[in-house]
């Protein structure tokens, strides 16, 4: 895997946004896979700033969702579709026709998962998938011991995850859904370029296990070792447990086009 160590979260956001810009200049209708959470926000802010400045035209771009709550109406303010509309689609000036995502409100959840897999394939596949990582090494909602060949499917949230997410539901854990739809590890690995962004010391052990540890289902993000074009962008704190951090700093400092990731 390519590993790029940046000074801080803002620098990471700028770097990843620039990689997206370069892709969109080559392929204006690229399908960008996006994630929710606080980690990717600097990416979306930096990309929107480039759109406002006229540095890139995203009018033909498409956006694909990584995961979604089950049982929430699509217009619920905390559905991930609504979150991505506020954080990605609206700032980029894109409408609903540019968006692909699973329908978590469908009574046939299994069917909704299969439909999303078909939609991604029909769209030509994801060109650039942005990921965060959990402290336990999960990507999407693929928790430890998820199959590394898994496809889009329904997953049960742990009570800890529901408690953590209660802050988005007025602090009421009873409002947090019990299930989610998530792209599987195997689905994620089909993206042409996968970029994992991690910031903060709390992610350091998971980053080290993913990059330098053995390929193992107990750390789902380690599956990215199998990908032909996977890039890990980390700040100094998230890189603090990497045994080969010095090598990564040297190699990318001397790579002529390292900012292209």
Automatic annotation (TrEMBL):
Instruction: Show the GO MF annotations.
Output: glucosamine-6-phosphate deaminase activity; identical protein binding
Q: Where are the active-site residues found?
A: 67 (proton acceptor), 136 (for ring-opening step), 138 (proton acceptor), 143 (for ring-opening step)
Q: Which Gene3D superfamilies match?
A: 3.40.50.1360
Report the residue ranges that make up the Glucosamine/galactosamine-6-phosphate isomerase domain in this protein.
Answer: 10-225
> EC number(s) for this protein?
3.5.99.6
Q: Does the keyword Hydrolase apply?
A: yes
Site (described: Part of the allosteric site) = 146, 153, 155-156
Q: Which family does it belong to?
A: Belongs to the glucosamine/galactosamine-6-phosphate isomerase family. NagB subfamily.
Q: Which HAMAP family match?
A: GlcN6P_deamin (MF_01241)
NCBIfam families with a match to the protein in the record: nagB, PRK00443.1-4
Question: Know the name of this protein?
Answer: Glucosamine-6-phosphate deaminase
Q: Which organism is it from?
A: Streptomyces tagetis
């Amino acid at each position: 895997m390519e590993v790029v160590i940046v000074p801080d979260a803002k620098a990471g956001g700028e770097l990843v946004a620039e990689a997206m810009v370069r892709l969109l200049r080559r392929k204006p209708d690229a399908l960008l896979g996006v994630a929710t959470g606080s980690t990717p926000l600097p990416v979306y802010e930096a990309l929107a700033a480039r759109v406002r400045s006229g540095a890139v035209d995203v009018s033909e771009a498409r956006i694909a969702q990584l995961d979604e709550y089950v049982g929430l109406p699509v217009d619920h303010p905390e559905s991930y579709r609504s979150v991505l509309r506020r954080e990605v689609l609206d700032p980029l000036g894109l409408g609903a026709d540019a968006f692909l995502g699973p329908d978590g409100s469908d009574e046939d959840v299994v069917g909704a998962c299969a439909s999303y897999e078909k939609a991604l394939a029909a769209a030509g596949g994801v060109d650039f998938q942005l990921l965060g990582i959990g402290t336990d090494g999960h990507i999407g909602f693929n928790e430890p011991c998820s199959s590394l060949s898994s496809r889009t499917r329904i997953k049960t949230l742990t009570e800890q995850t529901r408690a953590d997410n209660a802050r988005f539901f007025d602090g009421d854990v009873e409002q947090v859904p019990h299930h989610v739809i998530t792209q599987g590890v195997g689905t994620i690995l089909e993206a042409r370029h996968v970029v994992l962004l991690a910031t903060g010391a709390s992610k350091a052990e998971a980053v080290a296990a993913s990059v330098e540890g053995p390929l193992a289902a107990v750390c789902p993000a380690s599956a990215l070792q199998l990908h032909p074009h996977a890039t890990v962008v980390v700040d100094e704190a998230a890189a603090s447990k990497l045994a080969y951090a010095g090598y990564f700093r040297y190699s990318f400092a001397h790579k002529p086009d390292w900012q292209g990731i």
